[in-house]
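Suppose you are handed a protein chain with no further information: no name, no annotation, nothing but its sequence. What can you learn? This example shows the usual starting point.
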Amino acid sequence: MSLSYAPVINRAAALNQLKLIERQERVILARNEIIPFAQIMTPDPTYPDDTSATKYMAAKVHRVIAAALEEVEAGRIKKLILTVPPRHGKTELCSKLFPAWFVGRDPTRSVVVCSYNNRYAEDLGRAVRAYMKMPLYRELFPNSKLRQGEMASDRLNTTYKGLLVFTGREGTITGRGGDLVIIDDPIKNSDEARSPTIREQAWTWYKRDVLSRSMTDQAAVIIIQTRWHEDDIVGRIIDPTNPEFSEEEAGDFKIINLPALAYGDDDPLGRADGEALWPERFSREWLLKTKARDPEGFSSLYQQQPAAVDGSYFTRDDIVAYQPHELPKQLTYYAASDHAVDTKSRNDRTCLMVVGIDAEGVIWVVDVWWRRAKVDVVVEAMLKLMEKYELRHWAAEKDQILKSIEPFLRKRMRETETYCYIKPLPTHKDKQQKAQPLRGRMSMGMVRMPAKAPWFQQAKDELLKFDKARHDDFVDTLANIARSLHTMQSAPKERKVKPLPKVGTWAWVKEQHKREQRVTTFAGSDY
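A reasonable first move is to predict its three-dimensional structure. Written in structure tokens, the prediction is:
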């Protein structure tokens, strides 16, 4: 009888053994990688004893962030900036799970976590403390224990003299420094971001209080934030147009920018243009609706591209947007381009632009192609625009056309039987001089751009930062439009040729006499 149950008992024992092995594998993974740690520390309450059942659903964005955090813990990244849209899981991963994992791997280390105020920082401390008190955490990291009776939320001590401190801008950071300093959203909201006083306070706090808490010169610094303003802490570190910018300091940081909708060809997730960052939670359609409600706010909070407050060369009043129904029906079309031909400027983009000129001479920007691309891709894009619009001419700086695309462009124009006059413009090294015709037109409200275009906020930002920004592809292209129209209008008028009088008339005799006198005078001269 007992023999008949033996296979069943052996099978059950084998399954239990397999489960134990799988559990041990998950434990080992969680000790070494953040995403498995996040999953095992967020169990599904329906199956509390099953470490494979988790409520932490990691998307691609979280794996990119986790990979960077692991590089920080390993000492391969010393300074990291993460710019992430709101409610995309950055705080849970970076400021709650990561400090617990960081200290778990070495309980002698110290961490300082900072935010916009003490209350919020203490909320982060409570979350970290809760993780570290979980039985699963003690199983993962048996040596990383909080001191007996540790109940504080702003200061957690380990039995191995490790320390976790949580503080806001108004708080003080006393005691030991940190092997890791995390700054999570130093600006609370748009009201704080608009205050020059608070922005200055935040910058002083960052320089004097936070950075001085580094335990050694090998301590890591992580700044995680949603961009509220171009002059925030991240802006002062990475923006060359900011008075506080230091090329040396900016070079120390690894910068991972995660816009809600991808743009450009260097996306950290390898997304195509317009693809959502966390589509399982925030779909592209939802993001586009959010953008339509508040384009400028969306550009800042979701795209991490806060617009400049005002410019010194072009001002906000110069930038006039139009709605689709306002575009005139009768327009004369012209095109221009600015080509990325300098091999050193690998981040520059090529900009192709079509504008329509109305009866009053107003420039209406109607089509823009703006991206990094190889020559063959650029040429095909130019041909498509030539086919789509009846262009009077295409303007570009002579050196750019000759260096980059002219032979291939003319070959493809013949092959596709697509023809357009290419108008070469003189090459100007002086950016302001080149943009002067455009500046004049914009100051008179004679340049209009489509308010709903996906590139509008970026173009607006580039105009306001001209000519101190790293990139000015859009401005240069629009300036080429204005320059080409300016040369047309300022060209000398053709002299009207007076028709000869009828042969045999008195007028004809007088004209003949004048000509004979001119010939005689020329023959007697020194030439």
